[in-house]
Amino acid sequence: MAEVVFDQASRIYTPGAKPAVDRLDLTVADGDLVVLVGPSGSGKSTALRMLAGLEPIDAGSVRIDGRDVVDVPSKDRDIAMVFQNYALYPSKTVAENMAFPLKMRGMDKDERAQRVRQAAEMLGLTEYLDRKPKALSGGQRQRVAMGRAIVREPQVFLMDEPLSNLDAKMRVQTRAQIAEMQNRLEVSTVYVTHDQVEAMTMGDKVAVLANGQLQQYATPPELYDRPKNAFVAGFIGSPAMNLLDLPRSSSGVTLGGVEIPLPRDVSDAAGSRDKLTIGIRPEDWVLESTDADSSTVVKAVVDVVEELGSESYLYAHLADDTSTSVVVRGPGRVKVRFGDPIAVRPNPDALHVFDAETGERLP
Amino acid sequence: MTATLEERPAAPENAGGKPAIDKAEGWRRRGPLLPALIFTIIVTQIPFILTLYYSLQSWNLVRPGSQEFVWFSNYGDVFADSQFRTVALNTVIMTLGSVLIAVVLGLLLALLLNRQFAGRGIVRTLLITPFLITPVAAALLWKTVLLDPTLGLINFVLTPFGGSGTEWISQFPLASVMAALIWQWTPFMMLLLLAGLQSMPTDQLEAARVDGASAWSTFRELTLPHLRRFIELGVVLGTIYLVNIFDQVYMMTQGGPGVASANLPFYIYQRAFLGFDIGQSAAMGVVVVILTLIAANFALRLIFRSFSGEQEAA
Amino acid sequence: MAVTTSTPPDTQEPAAPPEPRRQKRSAANVWLGVVAWIVGIAFFFPVFWMVLTSFKQETDAYTTTPKIIFEPTLEQYEGVFSAGVGPYLVNSVIATVFSTLLVLLLGIPAAFAVSLRPVKKTQDVLFFFISTKMLPVVAVIVPIYVVVNQIGMLDNIWTLVVLYTGMNLPIAVWMMRSFFLEVPGELLEQASIDGAPLWRTLREIVLPIISPGIFATALICVIFAWNEFFFAVNLTAANAGTVPVFLVGFITSEGLYWAQLSAAATMAALPVVIAGWVAQNKLVQGLSFGAVK
What we know:
The structure holds 3 protein chains of 3 kinds. By secondary structure, chain A is of the alpha+beta class.
C-alpha cells in the first residue's frame, strides 16, 4: 500500500516535439482508485506505462511510497499490471500464470500454491486452474489477469483498459467486481480508460488528460458539477454538455434572442469580454409550453428524439439559427417527434461559464 | 486498433529503457546478431570481392604461373563472345518464361484450391510435391520417364494424336528444361498466391456480394488488386531463384546441343571447371551480378514494402 | 492489432444453414473440386510413376506401353545400396543436419536481436542478409573453389556444412524474425514486471510460442541443404559427395536401367518430400523471407 506521486513527470518521444506526457502532477492517495481518462493521444496510457517502468521518465519524477522510481526497473517497483489484452502466457496454465511473478521473486512452492488458491477462490477460477489461457472465455482470461496481479500483493495495481475486450454486459459486471475488490484489498490503483462512464463509476478520483496535459483532477461529482474548463465539461457526461459561444448582453448573454442573466460573481469575472462559452447540461433545460412569450423561452425545432424509457433526449436546432444545435433531456414517453417545435429555458442556477478563448472556467 | 494502442510507439525498443540506448546496452542488443553477421560476410561477401579481383586477371588453372593483371580485357572478351550473348538470351527466356507461365498456372491452381471441396488438403499436398523433389531427381525424371522419345510417358500419351517419336530433349532442349522448371515452380506460385487469396478480408467479399457484384467483377475489381502484391512478389522471387538454375540444365541437356539450352550459371561453370579459365568466368560472374542487381532492386523494394506494411500493423 | 485473442470457446457453433438454397452453389463446387483433384493427380503423377517404377523389374520398367500391373520387388533398392549409396547418404545427412543446427545456433540469437530488441541499424542488417540471397552463386563459386583448394578443404564434407549454413542463414533469420514479431509485446512487458530475467523470458515464454516456427524454419533449411547440387558437384568428389552427386554419377553409369534409377531418385527425394509435407504451411513464409504469412 502506498501513495503514488507524479511530480512534473514528462515523456518526450522526440526532443523538440510536443511531449506525450507534459509535466504531469498527480497524487494518488494511499488505497485510492484513480482513473486516468482522456481521448486517444491524450497521454493516459503513456503516463501509466511511465509508472510501470515500461516508458522512461524523461523529466520530473515519479514516486511510489516516497521512493523515487525513475531509475528503478519495473520488477523492483512493487507494482502489478493488468494489460488490455491480458498478456497471459499462452504456454502456461492458469495456475502457472498466476504463480509466475511469485516464482520469479523466489517464493517457496507451498506459499505460492496457497496464494494462487486464495486468489482463484476470490475470482471464481478454482475449476480452471489447470487450463491453458486459450481454453478460457474472454471474461475468464480477464479474471486470470486480475488474479495474477492480486497474488503479488503489490503496492500499486496498474490497469490499462482492462475491460475494453469484453462485451457490454460483461464489462458492467466486471467493472463492479474490480471496484469491489479494490475496496476490499485497499491497494492504490491507477486505472486507464477512454470510457468516461467507467471513469465516473469506478474512480475515487478521476484525472482527465488531453494532449499530454492534465486538465482536471477531482472526484467524479466535482468533475461533473464544476468542470475546470470547456474540454472537461464536454468530455464528462453523456450526452455531452451543450457548449454555446454566446454574445454578452447587459446582464448576461443572449441565446436565440433570449436574455440569460448570469450570477453576479460570474459576470464580474467575465469583465469586459464580449463573448462567453456557456455550458448547459441536457438535464439543465426546462421544457416550456410552445405558446410562451418568445422573449423568455428559446424556440427550437426537433431533429432527433432518443427515447430511453425513463427519459428521452431531444436533439434540436434553434428556430432562428439553424447552425446552433442543442440537446435537451425530456421526460420518458415524450410526445414530440421530428420537425416539432419546442420551447426551452436554461436553468439559470446550473450554468457553466467559460472564457471563449481559453476555455477556462469563470470565475 | 484501439485508442490506447495508438498512443504507443510501434517499435518495442522504447520498452524498459532510456530513450537513447547507452553504449553498453547497444552492444548487448547487437551482440546476438554479430556471429551470424560476421559468418555471412565471410561466406558470401569475401568470395565476391575475390571474384571482382579475379575478373581483372588473366588466369588459367591448367597453366600454373599464368596469372597476370589485365584490367578489363576479360570483360571485353565476354562481350565479344557471341556464345555468351546467346547464353544470356537463353537465361532471360528460361527465367522469365518459366516464371510467368508458373505464375499464371499457379494463379489458376490457387483459385481452384481456395474453394471448399472434399480432400482439399490432400490435393494441396499432391500439388506441392514437385516443388519438394530434389531438383536433380526431378530433372532425371523428366529426362527419362517423361520425355524419352520411345519409352517416355508424354509420347505414349500423344501417340493416339500422332505425336509419337518426338525427340523432345534434342529437338526442343530449352523448352524441355523449361517444362521441368515450370512443373517444379508452379506449386510454389500456387502456395504464394493461395496465401494471398486467404489473406483477403472476407468482409470485403461479403460487401461485394451484398452490393450485387458478379463473381467475375468481384475477382477483377477486388481479388486481383489484392493479389497484385503477391503476384509481383512471386515474379520477383521466382526470377531470383530461377536465374540461378543449374541442376536441370546440367542433368537434362548439359546446355546442348551446342549452347542451345545453356544458361549463364551453366556456361560459367563450363568455363571455370571444364575450361579452367578463372579470369573470364569471374568476369561473367560479375556481369550476372549486375543483371541480378537490377532484378533484386525491384525485389528489395517489394519486400521492403511488405516489410514496412507489417511494421505499421505491429 | 498486434495482439489477437481467439474467440472464447463458449461461443456456440452456428447451426448448419438450411440445405436447399445452397444446392446450386455446391454443384459448381463439386465440379471444380473434381477438376482440382484431376490437376493435383496430374502434377503428382510423374512422382507417383517414379516411385512405382522403383519397385519394378527392369523388364517391367523398360516397355513402350507403360505397365501398371507387375510383381513388386525391392531388388532395385538393394541394387542402389550395392552400388555404394551408403557413404553419400551419410554425407548428405551430415551436411544437412550440421548446417541446419549451425543455422539455428547463429540464426535464433540474430533473429531475436533484429526483432525484439532492435537497434538503429537493424533494418540495414536485415537488408544486408536478404541481399546476399540475391547474389548469384555462380558469381562466387570460382573464388570459393580457389580458396577451398588452397586450404586443402576440397572434397571435405565440412566445407559443404559451412557453405550451406551461409546459404540458409539469411532465409532463416528473416523467417524467424517474422515469428518473433508475432510474440505480443505485452507479454514481454508483463514478464519484465513479473521480474523474469531475459533468458527466462526467452526460455519460458517466447520459445514455447515460436517453437513451431523454429521447427518449420529448420525443415526448410533441411530441404535446401539436402537438395543442393551446385556446390556439391563442384567442390566434392569420391569422399564428400552428397546424394544428388551420387545420382549424377549413377545416371552416367546406369543410363539404361530405369527401375534402378527410379529407386535411386526416390531415395534421394523421399526425405525432403516428407519434410516439405510437414512444413508446407510455412514454406511460403520461408521462401518469401517472411513477407507472406
